[in-house]
């Protein structure tokens, strides 16, 4: 019988603990497949921050360093500057990156640090109880917005990809989703490009991945997929916002 799939070498062969319908496992697999494809597993260092993303070290067969809440880009900067030959990436959620870590991500991107950031956007604080995040949709019910997020007082959802794409230090900025097989293929292509930018010393690369959180959205995994298609993607459009050309001389 022909083998059509195997666990990527950059992932440990263990069961995932994430909630049913959570997309962290899919995103992990894509990142691991990209690392394998580029043959950089032994020189890759992952930086996880606080939140559901913190479990990076349980699943990836690479070196992983844990950072304080929101500080993964700062830690990644230090690691990359000391170990310039390493491939360094952060794996962060929206409550982490877009809230307490806003300063770190903006200044890291603006400096053009040669790292790759994988940003999982499920529009809610997942690990700590489902509170409103900077990316929470208008009208979305959370534990801190039981009547739904209102632009009066709560403001509007942050569009991190659009913001970061304006900074000159960014080499690649894209938003993808993993709610369908077609979108998974596109997500893999974008994440591969982001890592290739780092390999070619092009500077900061950033991929935002729209992800489901059925537990805190209080819906079934099937309904969560529909919500990504009907609500998240119309507000957070999937596209490449910025892509610098890699010189032929590299």
Give the name of the CATH superfamily.
Thiamin diphosphate (ThDP)-binding fold, Pyr/PP domains
Name the overall outline. Answer: globular
Summed up, the domain count is: 1
With helices defined by DSSP (H or I, 4 residues minimum), what is the helix count? 10
Main beta-sheet strand count, sense and barrel state = 7 strands, mixed
Class from secondary-structure proportions: alpha/beta
Question: What is the CATH architecture assignment?
Answer: 3-Layer(aba) Sandwich
Number of strand segments = 7
Q: What share of the residues lie within helices? A: 25-40%
State the CATH class: Alpha Beta
**Assembly state here?**
single chain
Contiguous low-pLDDT stretches (5 residues minimum) are: none
Distance between the termini: 41 Å
Order of helices and strands: HEHEHEHHEHHEHEHHE
The average pLDDT is 94
Tell me the CATH topology: Rossmann fold
Characterize the structure shown.
- Helix 4 (94-100) packs across helix 5.
- The radius of gyration is 17 Å and the shape is globular.
- The protein contains ten helices and seven strands.
- Strands 2-1-3-4-6-5-7 form a seven-stranded mixed sheet, with helices on both faces.
- The longest helix has 19 residues, at 181-199.
- It is an alpha/beta fold and 250 residues long.
- The chain has a single domain (24-242), classed as Thiamin diphosphate (ThDP)-binding fold, Pyr/PP domains (Rossmann fold, 3-Layer(aba) Sandwich).
């Amino acid at each position: 019988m022909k083998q059509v799939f195997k666990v990527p070498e950059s992932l440990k062969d263990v069961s995932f603990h994430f909630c049913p319908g959570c997309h962290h496992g899919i995103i992990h697999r894509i990142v691991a497949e990209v690392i394998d494809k580029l043959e950089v597993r032994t020189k890759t260092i992952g930086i996880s921050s606080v939140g559901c993303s913190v479990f990076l070290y349980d699943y990836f067969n690479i070196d992983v360093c844990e950072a304080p809440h929101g500080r993964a880009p700062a830690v990644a900067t230090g690691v990359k500057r000391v170990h310039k030959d390493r491939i360094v990436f952060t794996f962060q959620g929206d409550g982490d990156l877009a809230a307490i870590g806003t300063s770190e991500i903006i200044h890291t991107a603006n400096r053009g640090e040669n790292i790759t950031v994988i940003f999982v956007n499920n529009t809610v604080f997942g690990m700590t109880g489902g509170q409103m995040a900077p990316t929470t949709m208008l009208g979305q019910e959370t534990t801190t917005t039981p009547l739904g997020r209102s632009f009066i007082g709560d403001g509007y959802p942050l569009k991190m990809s659009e913001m970061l794409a304006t900074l000159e230090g960014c080499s690649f900025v894209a938003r993808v989703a993993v709610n369908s097989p077609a979108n998974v293929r596109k997500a893999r292509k974008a994440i591969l490009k982001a890592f290739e930018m780092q390999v070619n010393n092009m500077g900061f690369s950033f991929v935002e991945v729209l992800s489901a959180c059925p537990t805190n959205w209080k819906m079934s995994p099937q309904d969560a997929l529909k919500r990504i298609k009907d609500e998240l993607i119309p507000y957070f459009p999937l596209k490449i916002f910025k892509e610098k050309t890699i010189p032929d001389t590299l």
